[in-house]
């Protein structure tokens, strides 16, 4: 039996400012640092062995994972960074305030952009200061792999092949895995793990800095899933 620990990064500065973040690289807020520390403490209490650790290219997820591993006395554990685990790209919405955009575009249109399965926001301009194609952290990534916008379906189609290739074999080998990533990249993974339909996936909420412990059999069949911080747990949607 393997344990898969999914952690959305702690609150970021742009989460605090209610801005669409996506692939833009922002730091954790003070509260986000505390959430990451608590996540590590919760995992220590569960006495869970970690065999492999994964995260995205973005420092809010990297910092969350580093703090968790430090609290687990795993400071020297090497972790794997993958752009495929990045947050969904929010296109031209990147950097904008969510409340202000609701007023400008209407709540229903923003809901479609944020929660629909296969509708992406308008593309981000190539010369935007927020465009990841201009960020040096992606210098080793083909420009063809760096989007200008994404739907959740697009995000799913990069997360799941990476999971199948790099993470799934280790679960089949009964290793325990931790993934510190983002609301939508983890939503995509949960869609697969919990067999959630296209219509229901929009209802899945993933809180920041709260480890979701997923227990899987060696054949990848689902056993159980629970948030370690029950005071901030969200409903887990399974087979809907």
SSE diagram, text form:
Layout (H helix, E strand, L loop, with lengths): L1 E7 L4 H4 L13 H17 L5 E4 L3 H13 L8 E2 L16 H8 L1 H9 L36 H21 L4 E5 L1 H11 L18 E5 L5 E6 L13
Highlighted features:
single chain; 240 residues; alpha/beta; 6-stranded mixed β-sheet
Detailed description of the structure:
The protein has helices at 13-16, 30-46, 59-71, 98-105, 107-115, 152-172, 183-193; strands at residues 2-8, 52-55, 80-81, 177-181, 212-216, 222-227. Helix 2 (30-46) crosses helix 3, helix 4 (98-105) packs across helix 5 and helix 6 (152-172) packs across helix 7 (183-193). It is built from seven helices and six strands; from the N terminus they run βααβαβαααβαββ. It is of the alpha/beta class and 240 residues long. It has a six-stranded mixed β-sheet with strand order 3-2-4-1-5-6. The model has no long low-confidence stretch (mean pLDDT 94). 35% of the residues lie in helices and 12% in strands.
Oligomer: single chain
Q: Helix/strand-derived class?
A: alpha/beta
| Strand order, largest beta sheet | 3-2-4-1-5-6
What profile does the largest beta sheet have? Answer: 6 strands, mixed
Q: Globular, elongated, flat, extended or rod-shaped: what is the shape?
A: globular
Q: Strand fraction band?
A: 5-15%
Radius of gyration: 17 Å
Number of helices: 7
| Strand count | 6
Q: Could you list the spans in which at least 5 consecutive residues all have pLDDT below 50? A: none
Series of H and E elements: EHHEHEHHHEHEE
CA distance, first residue to last residue: 24 Å
Overall average pLDDT: 94
Helix proportion of residues, in percent? 25-40%
């Amino acid at each position: 039996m393997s344990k898969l620990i999914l952690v959305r990064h702690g609150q970021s500065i742009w989460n605090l400012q209610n801005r669409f973040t996506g692939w833009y690289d922002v730091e954790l807020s003070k509260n986000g640092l505390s959430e990451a520390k608590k996540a590590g403490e919760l995992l220590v209490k569960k006495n869970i062995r970690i065999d492999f650790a994964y995260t995205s290219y973005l420092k809010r997820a990297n910092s969350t994972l580093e703090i968790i591993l430090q609290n687990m006395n795993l400071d020297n554990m090497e972790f794997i960074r993958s752009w495929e685990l990045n947050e969904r790209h929010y296109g031209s919405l990147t950097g904008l305030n969510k409340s202000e955009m609701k007023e400008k575009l209407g709540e229903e249109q923003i809901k479609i952009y944020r929660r629909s399965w296969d509708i992406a926001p308008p593309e981000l301009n190539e010369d935007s200061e927020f465009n990841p194609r201009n960020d040096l952290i992606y210098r080793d990534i083909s420009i063809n792999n760096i989007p200008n916008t994404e739907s959740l379906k697009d995000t799913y189609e990069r997360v799941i092949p990476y999971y199948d290739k790099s993470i799934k074999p280790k679960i089949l080998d009964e290793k325990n895995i931790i993934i510190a990533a983002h609301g939508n990249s983890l939503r995509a993974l949960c869609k697969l793990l919990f067999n959630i339909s296209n219509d229901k996936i929009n209802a899945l909420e993933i809180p920041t800095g709260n480890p979701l412990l997923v227990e899987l059999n060696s054949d990848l069949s689902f056993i159980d899933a629970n948030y370690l911080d029950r005071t901030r747990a969200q409903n887990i949607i399974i087979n809907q």
